[in-house]
Amino acid sequence: MIDQPKRRSERLNRRKVTLLNKAYEISRFCEPPTKDEIRLSYPLPINLLSKDIEAQIKKKSTCDSNTV
Questions:
Q1: pLDDT at 39
Q2: Which of 19, 41, 54, 66 has a CA that sits 20 to 30 A from residue 28's CA?
Q3: Are 45 and 53 spatial neighbours (Cβ–Cβ below 8 Å)?
Q4: What's the confidence (pLDDT) of residue 44?
Q5: Vertex 6 angle, CA 3 and 7, to 5°
Q6: In this structure, is the dihedral angle defined by the CA atoms of residues 31, 32, 35 and 37, taken in order, positive or negative?
């Protein structure tokens, strides 16, 4: 007996399933971004940088010492 070809929709469904499985497998191996990549993508606002915070603290301490 000759095997009849499978229906076209069955082949398409299997291709879709295979594609989804491969996409899932690839996504498992993707690495999360490093801290440096995150810092470059989302830079801190200027007034929240460590040097600016230190300058604000120094400014407050000099103002407090002058008023006392």
A1: 77
A2: 41
A3: no
A4: 65
A5: 145
A6: positive
**Any idea how long the chain is?**
68
- Distance between first and last Cα of the chain: 104
Q: Rounded to whole angstroms, how far apart are CA atoms 8 and 63?
A: 80
Q: How far apart are CA 56 and CA 59, in angstroms?
A: 5
Here the tokens at position 11 are: 């082949």
How far is Cα 48 from Cα 25, in angstroms, rounded to an integer? 40
Q: pLDDT below 70 — which residues of the chain?
A: 1-6, 8, 43-47, 64-68
The two three-digit tokens of residue 15, written as one number? 């291709």
Enumerate helices (H) and strands (E) in the chain, giving the number of each: 3, 0
CB 46 within 8 A of CB 52: yes
